[in-house]
Amino acid sequence: MSVQSSIDFELVYRDSTKMALFQSLMSNGWKYHDECGKVFYLPVGDIDDYDWQYEKMSLDQLQELVQRKMDQNEVIGISITWGDTDVGGDFLIWPDGNCSFMVNKNRKILIGRVTDFSWYLAKLIPAVDSRDIRMIGCTASDM
Question: Which domain holds residue 50?
């Protein structure tokens, strides 16, 4: 039986946008592409289908995609990994500005099958609780 793990963040934006959150992830050690330069992402126009796409994309192209999804008030979804590891998951930015991290790529575990949430939080919090973005709540769950 598989484990579904997620971390949900409740955020307040000062003078920044969801793009600032995306950029903060990249500047705090998270990578948006795999070793081939390809990106897993939710395409523009994906309304509740979660039809993830996988293709080669530059950072500029990805930022343009994020902006278009923001303009259309869509869920922004990008798979990210930490640094040079292959540990990560799907990062979703909801239309209301809150976000979720679905821990689904080489999940770090403690004893048994319990997710090591402290490992993820130590790497996500600097990005989601930055100068212009305030984290006001966080919930982690294993199911």
Answer: 5-142
Number of domains composing the chain: 1
Q: Specify the pTM.
A: 0.94
pLDDT tens, residue by residue, 50-100: 999 999 999 999 999 999 999 999 999 999 999 999 999 999 999 999 999
Write the single-letter amino acid at 23. Q
Residue among 63, 20, 71, 25 at smallest CA distance from 45: 71
Cβ distance 53 to 43 under 8 Å? Answer: yes
Asked if pLDDT for residue 15 goes beyond 80, the answer is no
Q: Which amino acid is at 121?
A: L
Which phi and psi angles does 59 have, rounded to 5°? -60, -40
